[in-house]
Every structure is written in structure tokens, then in C-alpha cells.
From TrEMBL:
<dbReference type="Pfam" id="PF00633">
    <property type="entry name" value="HHH"/>
</dbReference>
<protein>
    <recommendedName>
        <fullName>Adenine DNA glycosylase</fullName>
        <ecNumber>3.2.2.31</ecNumber>
    </recommendedName>
</protein>
<dbReference type="InterPro" id="IPR023170">
    <property type="entry name" value="HhH_base_excis_C"/>
</dbReference>
<keyword id="KW-0326">Glycosidase</keyword>
<dbReference type="InterPro" id="IPR003651">
    <property type="entry name" value="Endonuclease3_FeS-loop_motif"/>
</dbReference>
<dbReference type="InterPro" id="IPR044298">
    <property type="entry name" value="MIG/MutY"/>
</dbReference>
<dbReference type="InterPro" id="IPR003265">
    <property type="entry name" value="HhH-GPD_domain"/>
</dbReference>
<keyword id="KW-0378">Hydrolase</keyword>
<comment type="similarity">
    <text>Belongs to the Nth/MutY family.</text>
</comment>
<dbReference type="Pfam" id="PF00730">
    <property type="entry name" value="HhH-GPD"/>
</dbReference>
<dbReference type="InterPro" id="IPR011257">
    <property type="entry name" value="DNA_glycosylase"/>
</dbReference>
<keyword id="KW-0479">Metal-binding</keyword>
<dbReference type="InterPro" id="IPR000445">
    <property type="entry name" value="HhH_motif"/>
</dbReference>
<keyword id="KW-0408">Iron</keyword>
<keyword id="KW-0411">Iron-sulfur</keyword>
<feature type="domain" description="HhH-GPD">
    <location>
        <begin position="45"/>
        <end position="197"/>
    </location>
</feature>
<dbReference type="Pfam" id="PF10576">
    <property type="entry name" value="EndIII_4Fe-2S"/>
</dbReference>
Length: 297
DNA sequence: TACGCGTGGCG
DNA sequence: TCGCCAAGCGT
């Protein structure tokens, strides 16, 4: 439960002022001339992915596919190939599908409202709100992992939020929004940035924080996290690893690969074939006659 | 609601 | 070293 003791107006003022001087204004999708399509791309690419890895891929995509129509005209497999090692490659496929939907339903434009954005593949509550706000200036409630952590600490005095975003937390985020539209738009990006640069998960830099003297967690002596265990993500020997290796081989080949060239993608042959089937089912891989495979044309 | 989904860097 | 974490989404 929020303490109700943190003065929100002061919180907004401090965080927004901090962002004006310390925020990464050089990020290309934050440039005033960046089109909504560039913002849209950056948001999908940034899902569960550090920005440092996103930036070079973003530049390549914007040069190659500067509009939704340009991407929609390409083969989906080319989007998967250009995705490189960004991770979660289904996002590349969904971007291609979203671009197609923009051409068919939105006159080739990125839609403006959260409702329209939510209807696009690969767009959830966070991305819809972020694009509405950052590309079009609508004061939506933008809640990502950074915002959740900052609010958990400053308002609730906890080291980390719950494992999953629940209704009470969404209410808290909405209630913590500035009433003024311009202030709200800056707040959305500024509080995210504070979580990304200062109020980080491990080793928070409270000495550099503009609201350390208001933060319930800091004022309470930064008590350790005492909630349920935060489950890690298995990797070695998992389907994820095998799928990643299969896709890496297919990305690196200009021509279709025979199944023999893919068999060594894991230690368990049955697992490799199961993963290959799952990639086909996901639309990330296209099967050809004579047991050959390629990225979808 | 809980889980599966890539990849790589950092403490 | 190795587990944790990163501008989440779909089922």
C-alpha cells in the first residue's frame, strides 16, 4: 500500500528536471524529427532487451525500411534475418505483421490510440501506451519494469514490485500521474529513465538520485526484498537454446539448408527436431521439399 | 495467473 | 563463476 506521504508534485518536478539534464536525449527515437514508425520500432525492439543492443539494429531497419509499407513489402524472413541476435525473434515476425496491418487498416500510418495499437500483433499494454505517449503526445499511463521498480521504492518502500503487474499496481501508477498533460508526457519518459540509469535493480545509485530524500525505501534504510523468489530463466539445454541455434544457422545461410545441416543444433536429436517443428509452427522457418528449410519467403 | 520465449553483460 | 536481469507479449 502506498504511504500517501510522498508529495507527488515535488516528485514530478524533481524527476522531470533530472531528466532534462541527465536523460539520454541522443537516443535517435527521442529526436523531435523521429517519425512514429521509428518510435514504434524502438519500443518493440526494446522489449526485454538492453537499449545498447537495440540502437544499431534500429538504424539498420530505419534505413532499409523507413515506413510501414516498406517493411510490409519485404519477405518476413528478411525481417527475421535483419533481427540478428536481438533475441525473441518472433518480435521481428510480429513487426512485419503489424506493418502489414498498418498498410491495410491505417493507410500506412502508425495508429494513434492505445485501442488501435493494442489490436496490432506484438503490442501489449506497455507498448501501446508508450507509442501513444512518445510518438503522439497522448498522456497515457506508461508502466514498464523501470517504472514499477521506481514506484515500488519511492511510494511503497519496497525493494522490488510483485512478480507480475496486478490491478492495484496499475491503479497506483495511474494515481501517480501528473494532471497536466505536458508534465505527464515528460514524467512518463523521465521516470522510466530514472529506473534505467539510477534506480536500477542491482546496485541502485541512490547518491545520484534526485528524489532520494523523498523515497520511502531509502528513508526506511533500503530494506531487502522479502517477497516470493524471483524465478530465473533456465538456458542450458533448453528449447530456447536449441531454437536459437537453429535460427542462427538459418540466418547465416543465404540458401536453404538440408536437415543434416541443422541436426547438430543440440545434444538431443529428438529435441532438435521438436524445436525445428515449433519454429515452423511459429512461422519463423519455412519447410521445403526434400527436408530443406529456410527463413520464410 | 504462470509460463515459455533469445541473447548477452554484469556484479 | 553463474545467476540475475533487461523499455513484454501471447497463451
Amino acid at each position: 500500500m502506498p504511504s500517501g506521504r510522498v508529495p507527488l508534485a515535488l516528485l514530478h518536478e524533481r524527476v522531470n528536471a533530472w531528466y532534462a539534464t541527465e536523460g539520454r536525449a541522443h537516443l535517435p527515437w527521442r529526436h523531435p524529427d523521429c517519425p512514429p514508425w521509428g518510435v514504434f520500432l524502438s519500443e518493440v525492439m526494446s522489449q526485454q532487451t538492453p537499449l545498447a543492443r537495440v540502437e544499431p539494429i534500429w538504424h539498420e531497419w530505419m534505413e532499409r525500411w523507413p515506413t510501414p509499407a516498406a517493411l510490409a513489402a519485404a519477405a518476413p524472413g528478411e525481417a527475421v534475418r535483419a533481427w540478428g541476435r536481438l533475441g525473441y525473434p518472433r518480435r521481428a515476425l510480429r513487426l512485419h505483421e503489424a506493418a502489414t496491418a498498418m498498410v491495410e487498416r491505417h493507410d500506412g500510418q502508425v495508429p494513434r490510440t492505445p485501442e488501435e495499437l493494442l489490436a496490432l500483433p506484438g503490442v501489449g499494454a506497455y507498448t501501446a501506451a508508450a507509442v501513444s505517449c512518445f510518438a503522439f503526445g497522448l498522456p497515457e499511463v506508461v508502466v514498464d519494469t523501470n517504472v514499477r521498480r521506481v514506484l515500488a521504492r519511492t511510494l511503497e518502500g519496497k525493494a522490488f514490485p510483485h512478480l507480475t503487474l496486478n490491478r492495484a499496481e496499475a491503479r497506483l501508477a495511474a494515481a501517480s500521474m501528473p494532471a497536466d498533460r505536458d508534465t505527464a508526457n515528460t514524467w512518463n519518459v523521465a521516470v522510466m529513465e530514472l529506473g534505467a540509469l539510477v534506480c536500477v535493480a542491482r546496485g541502485p545509485r541512490c547518491g545520484d538520485c534526485p528524489v532520494a530524500d523523498l523515497c520511502a525505501w531509502n528513508l526506511d534504510g533500503r530494506p531487502a526484498y522479502d517477497g516470493p523468489p524471483r524465478r530465473g530463466q533456465a538456458w542450458h539445454g533448453t528449447d530456447r537454446q536449441v531454437r536459437g541455434e537453429l535460427l542462427r544457422r538459418l540466418r547465416d545461410s543465404v540458401t536453404p539448408l538440408p536437415v543434416q545441416a541443422l541436426e547438430g543444433s543440440g545434444d538431443d536429436p529428438l529435441q532438435v527436431m521438436r524445436c525445428l517443428d515449433s519454429l515452423v509452427a511459429d512461422g519463423l522457418v519455412e519447410p521445403l521439399p526434400r527436408r530443406r528449410y529456410r527463413l520464410p519467403a
